[in-house]
Amino acid sequence: MLDLRLYMAQRLSALVMAPLVLGHIAVMIYAIQGGLNATEILGRTQGSLLWFLFYGTFVLAVSVHAAIGLRVIVHEWLRLRGIALDVLTWGICAALLTLGLSAVFAVTLP
Predict the structure, then answer these.
(1) Contact yes or no for 51/24 (Cβ under 8 A)
(2) Among 11, 15, 67, 107, which one has the highest count of C-beta atoms within 10 angstroms of its own C-beta?
(3) Complete DSSP assignment for 18-48
């Protein structure tokens, strides 16, 4: 049952990530073609609830997706199982979430 839940969580996180990746690429292309520098980009993102929600959702989806994917790889290659595999998976997810959200806060908080 856990395998099915993890499978579905990874597929749902991919479903959430797909449009966010496309949106991120579109914004980056717009910023580069518009000749914006880092100061101008931060001026537009800081204090914006929209960008906070966009990138916060992106970080959450990536953290879940990557942690589950790495769980599968570690299980197959290192034969790690049980509690150790669960702790590693949650640790990876927490680390990615912490690092990602710190970046989101740095870019969006005033």
Answers:
(1) no
(2) 67
(3) HHHHHHHHHHHHHHHHTT--HHHHHHHHTT-
SS3 for 9? Answer: helix
| Contact by Cβ (8 Å): 11, 73 | no
pLDDT of residue 34: 83
Residue 2 has pLDDT above 80, yes or no: no
Nearest-angstrom CA–CA distance, 71 and 85: 7
For residue 108, with 0-12 CB atoms within 10 Å meaning exposed, 13-18 middle and 19 or more buried, which class applies?
A: buried
Say how far apart CA 15 and CA 34 lie, in whole Å. Answer: 29
Task: Evaluate if residue 78 carries a pLDDT over 80.
Answer: yes
**Burial of 71: CB neighbours in 10 Å, binned 0-12, 13-18, 19+:** buried
